[in-house]
């Protein structure tokens, strides 16, 4: 089934989140999957089990309590956000496998820029030399996935210093610009999206009999 890519440009977080919910609530077994590409104005988002104690100082950056997994993270201009509006049942893989596939797509994209990155089975996301460059947060409802990933491209990283990113005190955060890559969010999206498509559509591994 064809997967549509929607380019949302710069859009406020909360209306985009509400649109994701509406899309998921009204989709049917025949609804094509979509990938939403967006940048958000500065905003902190806190997952369902998120604790406000991970906000280390008061700022004028708005905080939105949302319905994804995970703790607190920051979104802002210069960060690529891709929301994966996917029929989870149709995909036929488990949650951990889907997370691994998304991480692998990001890792492959970074490798294309000459950057060696890795995932972490205990802390979803993608890391370069221990510093987090991409975050993941998903919600599964009615057999469908929404929310998605954020990849730091060329942004002001200071607001990450005012939180415990993803609930981890002292976690370092990095971005493509700090790693020597000069690229726009759109240019990085053009590289990441095909990798995401390939990863999502990869055949499901069949266990081999002993």
Automatic annotation (TrEMBL):
<feature type="domain" description="BPL/LPL catalytic">
    <location>
        <begin position="29"/>
        <end position="204"/>
    </location>
</feature>
<comment type="pathway">
    <text>Protein modification; protein lipoylation via endogenous pathway; protein N(6)-(lipoyl)lysine from octanoyl-[acyl-carrier-protein]: step 1/2.</text>
</comment>
<feature type="site" description="Lowers pKa of active site Cys">
    <location>
        <position position="132"/>
    </location>
</feature>
<keyword id="KW-0963">Cytoplasm</keyword>
<feature type="active site" description="Acyl-thioester intermediate">
    <location>
        <position position="166"/>
    </location>
</feature>
<feature type="binding site">
    <location>
        <begin position="68"/>
        <end position="75"/>
    </location>
    <ligand>
        <name>substrate</name>
    </ligand>
</feature>
<comment type="function">
    <text>Catalyzes the transfer of endogenously produced octanoic acid from octanoyl-acyl-carrier-protein onto the lipoyl domains of lipoate-dependent enzymes. Lipoyl-ACP can also act as a substrate although octanoyl-ACP is likely to be the physiological substrate.</text>
</comment>
<comment type="similarity">
    <text>Belongs to the LipB family.</text>
</comment>
<dbReference type="InterPro" id="IPR045864">
    <property type="entry name" value="aa-tRNA-synth_II/BPL/LPL"/>
</dbReference>
<dbReference type="GO" id="GO:0009249">
    <property type="term" value="P:protein lipoylation"/>
</dbReference>
<feature type="binding site">
    <location>
        <begin position="148"/>
        <end position="150"/>
    </location>
    <ligand>
        <name>substrate</name>
    </ligand>
</feature>
<dbReference type="Pfam" id="PF21948">
    <property type="entry name" value="LplA-B_cat"/>
</dbReference>
<keyword id="KW-0808">Transferase</keyword>
<dbReference type="InterPro" id="IPR020605">
    <property type="entry name" value="Octanoyltransferase_CS"/>
</dbReference>
<feature type="binding site">
    <location>
        <begin position="135"/>
        <end position="137"/>
    </location>
    <ligand>
        <name>substrate</name>
    </ligand>
</feature>
<protein>
    <recommendedName>
        <fullName>Octanoyltransferase</fullName>
        <ecNumber>2.3.1.181</ecNumber>
    </recommendedName>
</protein>
<keyword id="KW-0012">Acyltransferase</keyword>
<dbReference type="InterPro" id="IPR000544">
    <property type="entry name" value="Octanoyltransferase"/>
</dbReference>
<dbReference type="GO" id="GO:0033819">
    <property type="term" value="F:lipoyl(octanoyl) transferase activity"/>
</dbReference>
<dbReference type="InterPro" id="IPR004143">
    <property type="entry name" value="BPL_LPL_catalytic"/>
</dbReference>
<dbReference type="GO" id="GO:0005737">
    <property type="term" value="C:cytoplasm"/>
</dbReference>
